[in-house]
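Take a minute with the sequence and fold tokens given here and flag any structure token that looks odd. Thanks in advance.
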Amino acid sequence: MKQTITRILGATALGLAFCLPCAYADTPPLLESTFEKDAGDWEVYSPTGAVTGKISITHEAAHLRESKKEGKGALQFDYSIKKGDLSALSLRVPLATIAKMNSLHFWVQADHATSLLLVVSERGGGRYQMPIAVTAHTWQEVAVAPSDLMLNEDAGSPPAPRGKIDLEHIESIGLVDIDSFLAQTAGDANPFDIATGQHTLYLSDFVVTDAPLPAIPGTAEEVQITPFIRPQIDWLTIGDLSVQKVTEKPLIGPSMKATYTQKKMKVFGMIKQFPTGAFANAKQLDVAVASKLRSTLVVQVETKNGLKYRTQIEVGAGSERKEFALPFAEFTAADDSADKNIPLDLKQISKILFLDITGFTISDDQENTLWINNLHSSSSISR
């Protein structure tokens, strides 16, 4: 069961508030969708060609942001999460339209806790992506710089012939619910508690501008894995897991707060992608964690060529802050790694996963809250 879960995950893993009015007060946006009257160039896309999703414009106050309720609109996307049905939102972008893009900004609301994958595609080039964690029925602000987008290097994805994102050749921008991907591979067991069935997504105030965003901090000696300088949490969430950025005890400073129900034989997790080579100088992974209930967490790193290495930590109950120092030398090959005999090559790490596997040891469902922050790599061993 655990091997099946990590196989699916491997196949699927694809601070400062941004002031939108300030960003383009003096210059017009490069691209804008207000959704006041129509959907513009937005459409429903399906890689299988069988388009079952539907888009429309809503003016219902219940589905508009507070500042947009006076005669404004939002894009409504109705879609199904089930095996054999994969629909996404897609915006056609005329070539060179956003060649000077420094930031992309929008608001999004989902009817269930999930992660959305923002996908920016080049004509004749690569696909770049960033995950966006969203909580149910809550408007989530999103601000993205081109440097935030990671090349999709999964098997079958097109390469980046220019070595980096080429804004002059962007031809589409898309949004897809990660549960739609998981539904294609999870099988009848549904180990991730996927929210199958009919769902609705709302999109508001989509703007591309030349206004820059603050750069993500980090050095060759330390990777800030979650710096909290964007309004969104850029992790893929797996399962019915509500993740949001908060500043509250028991941790100090901004943190990721995950709220979910630990269920028997179910797994919940979060995945973060990184540029290959980012951890070349790392020796260990540092993280601060607190949990309402006792939790067993697997911390896993994956390489570009499909090798997986993991360690396990036990987090006590009582919402007490605990710091963990996890030397990469102590990570061992996962059972479903492509080759368990190859040692971990830090230069090849491309993903980090946090998995709550408490469901394999409990008999009854239990509500839990998990906090994570101070997550970074270090070039030295602290213990």
In short: The radius of gyration is 20 Å. Residues 236-378 form a domain with the Jelly Rolls fold (CATH 2.60.120.430). The longest strand covers residues 197-209.
